[in-house]
Specification:
Helices cover 33% and strands 15% of the residues. By secondary structure, the chain is α+β, with helices and mostly antiparallel strands.
């Protein structure tokens, strides 16, 4: 199945969005050599994703989730599904996520969170370290801080 690509200009940088034509497969910070085909904008999944992102970046919680195609291990998918339940404007620790899914290892949860293929929509930025520190983020800690502030959180500790 072909993979379609689209770029999206966001407040945290250009996002590279990938779809199989039916669902989202990946969202990441675009590399400098990222190339997309503007014809891909006509795909309904990209229109839906752009609407979601426009809504989110305006500081409002989107009331829908675009169709997702999450590829990973069963454990990773379990963690990512739990991330989708994290409310807009709230955080949870790796340990809290581990408890929710019946896992004894916050570190294993952290590794799965770090492999999240769909930034922002699958809100890995809402997971923080014990004690409320922001912890890591594959797209950079300043972007994580910006995303959380966009959701109304203040006094964040890096």
């Amino acid at each position: 199945m072909p993979l379609y690509r689209l770029s999206y200009e966001s407040p945290i940088g250009t996002l590279a969005i990938y779809s199989n034509g039916r669902a989202l497969c990946r969202i990441e910070i675009a590399s400098k050599n990222f190339i997309c085909d503007s014809q891909n904008e006509a795909l309904p999944i990209f229109a839906e994703t752009k609407l979601w992102l426009d809504t989110y970046f305006s500081g409002v919680r989107p009331d829908f989730t675009p169709r997702l195609d999450l590829s990973g291990t069963d454990f990773q998918k379990k963690v990512w599904t739990e991330l989708l339940s994290l409310p807009f404007g709230q955080t949870a620790t790796y340990g809290e996520i581990a408890k929710r899914i019946g896992c004894k290892s916050a570190q294993a949860v952290g590794q799965a969170v770090g492999q999240n293929p769909i930034l922002i929509i699958v809100p890995c930025h809402r997971v923080v370290a014990a004690g409320g520190k922001l912890g890591g983020f594959s797209a950079g800690i300043e972007r994580k801080k910006w995303l959380l502030e966009n959701e109304g959180l203040v006094n964040l500790r890096i």
